[in-house]
Amino acid sequence: MEIRPTSDQDLDVFVDTVHTAFGRFPETPTEDGGGVWWAALEMDRGLLAMTADGRPVGTSAAYSFELTLPGGILAPAAGVTAVGVLPSHRRQGVLSAMMRHQLDDVRARGEFVAVLLASEALIYRRFGYGPATYTQRVTVPRNQATFAVPRSGDTSATGSVEVLRRTECREILEEVYDRYRRAQPGALSRPHRWWASEAGHPPISPAPRYVAVHRDADGVPDGYASYSLESATLTVDETIATDDAASTALARYVLGHDLVRDVVVRHVPPDHPLRWQLADFRAGEVSDDTDWLWVRLLDVPRALTARGWLTDGELVLDVDDPFLGEHGRYLLTIRDGKADCAPTDREPDLSLDVSDLGSIYLGGTAPSKLVRAGHIRAHRSGAAALADDLFRGERAPHCVHWF
């Protein structure tokens, strides 16, 4: 078997192979080749697994993203995608060979973090990935959507909401999303080619959608909600807001829509205040509470010194990376929001797998939770609590981008 990189000439073979691996048939692209998920593929980052007689049996690819870290720092990240092996060639080492080849390539490109959306949770932990952001769906019956009267702060509404079709406001969506993702830990960039080629899920794809665009008091767009209405159910694909005022105004808009029985809001962060804003807390029914972005670190010292930190402290981490056959012990020292991370022979405070380090890296998973779960070993009293303080971010990480 050979693992080889792809080029633009391999696009049709690549797309056919990955669809066969998942038992699906490709959608029909638009006349200019857009409107399908693979329109944004970077074929110089793709891989094909080939049999000795030249038949493709596996695929993997990556996008060049920016990942927002705690502290508002933007880091280059490989967005792993289109990973598939034909059913006839599974459990023969094809996937492991592609994953190893891909991680080598990510490192060679100077990226210290890779991310993905896991189709199956059991697959990717063995390659060093850990769940790092989480998302929910909230369903609110329209007749129970009354907002509670705020007990503090200014209750007067500012700004306005304008309803547009998706085709009328692509530039606004692109600009607002980019402002949002730069301040939201866990968010990924959406390169212009995604919007231009209409690749991905709504509101990027050409699927017809209405968009509620919120503008601040000065008329500047600062939020949007992309939605559709069918069979008396209003479904919000994506809500993006650069502040709480815009988020609340958009929630009021979708929950106040006429001729609606239920409002379904997808991709709600677990710490979102929506349910608390309702007069009836139980009116917001949570479902599809699941992981979203998985994180894999490839250079522990570089990754830990790249992100921002809120608390000073010192921690010795003993990190095992069995897939790559690597092991390191590091002294993490944080002062005034900056970290230094260097090899050490001191006794460890915490011992953990690189996948667990990926889970706590963005601040969305408390180290103490993984200690209690038996994933991380704490070697001294207080080490888990200290790690919780150190790794927390200024806000919970969240990612809405599908890739």
Q: How many strands, what sense, and barrel or not for the largest sheet? A: 7 strands, mixed
Q: What class, by secondary structure content?
A: alpha+beta
Our Rg estimate from Cα atoms comes to 22 Å
Average of pLDDT: 96
**How many structurally independent domains?**
3
pLDDT under 50 segments (min length 5)? none
Helix and strand string, N-terminal first?
Answer: EHEEEHEHEEEHHEEEHEHEEHEEEEHHEH
Helix content: 10-25%
How far apart, in Å, are the first and last alpha carbons? 27 Å
Shape: globular
CATH homology group of the largest domain = Gcn5-related N-acetyltransferase (GNAT)
The largest sheet has its strands arranged as 1-2-3-4-5-14-6
Architecture per CATH nomenclature, i.e. the level-2 architecture of the largest domain:
3-Layer(aba) Sandwich
- The number of helical elements comes to 11
Classify the fold: give the CATH topology of the largest domain: Aminopeptidase
Strand content: 25-35%
Number of strands: 19
CATH hierarchy class name of the largest domain: Alpha Beta
Protein name: Putative acetyltransferase
InterPro entries: Acetyltransf_17, Acetyltransferase_Eis, Acyl_CoA_acyltransferase, Eis_dom, GNAT_dom, NAcTrfase_Eis, SCP2_sterol-bd_dom_sf
Pfam family, one: SCP2_2
GO biological process, one term: aminoglycoside antibiotic catabolic process
